[in-house]
Every structure is written in C-alpha cells, then in structure tokens.
Amino acid sequence: MKNKINCFYTVFLTYRERLELCQALSLPLPKKLILSLNLGITEYEEIILHKDMIQTTNKKLPLPSPKLLNSDERTILIYDGQTWRKWEYFDEYTQKFFKMIYVGKNKPPTVEISGIKMHVTKEGNPALDTENKIKVFQQLNGIVLDTCTGLGYTAIRAAQNKGVKKVFACESDMNIIKICRENPWSQQIFQQKRIFPVICPVQDFVRMFSDNFIDYIIHDPPRFSLSPALYAEKFYIELHRILRNKGELYHYTGDPNKKIRKQPLWKSTKHLLKKVGFRRVEHTYQGIWAQK
Q1: How far apart are CA 147 and CA 219, in angstroms?
Q2: Residue ranges with strand state E in the chain
Q3: Omega before 30 cis (within 30°)?
Q4: Within 10 A of 172 (CB to CB), how many other CB atoms are there?
Q5: Residue 98's closest CA among 110, 118, 119, 112?
Q6: What are the tens digits of pLDDT across the range 190-221?
Q7: 180 and 140 in contact (C-beta within 8 Å)?
Q8: Is 286 in contact with 253 (CB distance < 8 Å)?
Q9: What gap in Å lies between CA 279 and CA 264, rounded to an integer?
Q10: pLDDT tens-place string over residues 233-289
Q11: Cβ distance 292 to 138 under 8 Å?
C-alpha cells in the first residue's frame, strides 16, 4: 500500500486559500497571511515572498500558475513536491474520472467519481453525512465491517466509539486507496490501531468470515449503476450470514433516478433484505436500517 506521495509532504490549496493568495498578490510583497495547506486541519502564518514563491513553516514552495489559482470553486490544487496540479485522476482501464471536491471551510473534501459525488453535500458536508449514518445505530460496539470504505470517514468515525474492537475497512479501487494516502482527512485509516484496511472486493472478503462473526455492518456502496452486485440478493445473503443475531446493518441507498424509477431504491432494497431473512427492516437516513 506504499505510494510515492506522502501526505506529510503534500500541500493543498482550496478555493478559500486561493482567494486569499490572489488578494495578497495584488498588494506589496512580501506579505504575511494565515493559510491552511492541509485542507483546513491546521492553519499557520505563511509568507508570500514574491509573486512566484511562498515561505511555509516547513520550506519554500513555488506558487501555482495564475490559471490554476483561478480554477473553479470546487477544485482543490495539490503540490506533490514537484509541481502544482488539480487533485484529480483518470483511470484509462476503467474509464472512470476521480476528482476531489472542496465543500467548505475546515470540512473534509469529498470525491466525485465520473460526476457522481460519494457523500451527501447538498444540505451538509461529508462530516455531517458520516455522523448521520453512524447515528442510525443505537450504539456501535464489537466488530464492525465497513464494506465500501471510500475516503474512510465512516470507518474512522466508527473506530472512535469506545466499545468498538475492530473495524474492517474494505476498499477495492486502487484509485481511491491512492487518494486516501494523499488526503489528510483519511490518514487515521492507516494509523488507528482498531482499523484494519483491506484491499479486496467486498463480495470476496465477506466469504472469509464465519457465520455470526460481525456485530455491525455499514454498507455504503457506490450508486447502483456503478456497482449493481452490491445491491443484489446474493450479496445480501452473505451479509445476513456473517452478522450475529440481533446485529445491525445500515445500507445507504440514496434516491438515484427517482424521476424514472417505478419505486424508490430503498423500497426494493427493503424488500430484498426482508427476503434474505432480516427480521426488522426500516427506512432511515438516506437508506435502510436492518436487524438480524
């Protein structure tokens, strides 16, 4: 899981920082200003030495080109030790486009995959979205399976519960793993002792568990159109099998294609979960809560 880019040496500029830099560059230099270069986690006094160079707390860095500085509000810039670029990737094999999105001051960014955002941000942000999903459970404890870890915010939040012993954080997309390695908000995936990152399709990983092994399952898959197998009866049978009696499942569904669907996705999901044996199944925040 090693990556050439180490988060400690990686620097970021969001729309907020870029605005402040542009304003400062219009004034006599050198100029001091307070900036966050790690996506809002910390702020320090930095010095713009001249129009092409900034002195940070650690070292001198070149400034991005005017064209990059004037990127749209959602774009995040990343400096990887050699050059500034937009924080985005295109996977030629899968033909998927990954773009990290700025959502607000001091808030963790989200990722957009081929135009589909992986967090609910319309009336909130990834941190609030994560908290709402965790609140679905009365009390997390024991062994937790996070089936589709993504940027890891849910796994990190779950591991903060005192009663949680282990969180298996499963992710199969190496593009997402790479982004997690870069993202300051994702670092606890690799540092928190109770989190066990797993690089594997979750359909394969769940087969490794014995019956009734998992206490809680957080199933937050990509949109149905991207991963229909993660909404299938065959997969739900495995989730039911590995979950202990009275164990709980949260299944994110969202409400994709609601204008053309005959019924909401959560309704068909509820039906399938009941069919495979879940005894209590209820509509909840952006999806379904179920108990074995």
Answers
A1: 5
A2: 11-13, 31-35, 44-50, 53-55, 60-62, 77-79, 84-86, 88-91, 96-101, 110-113, 116-117, 142-146, 164-171, 195-199, 214-219, 243-252, 280-284, 287-291
A3: yes
A4: 17
A5: 112
A6: 999 999 999 999 999 999 999 999 999 999 99
A7: no
A8: yes
A9: 21
A10: 999 999 999 999 999 999 999 876 665 667 889 999 999 999 999 999 999 999 999
A11: no
Measured CA to CA in angstroms, residue 252 lies from 12, 110, 114 at distances of 30, 16, 19
Return the structure tokens found at 141: 């404890």
Are 100 and 109 a contacting pair, CB within 8 Å?
A: yes
> If you count them, how many residues does the chain have?
292
* Six-digit token string for 171: 């992710």
Structural domains of the chain, with CATH? 7-86 (no CATH), 88-117 (no CATH), 126-291 (3.40.50.150)
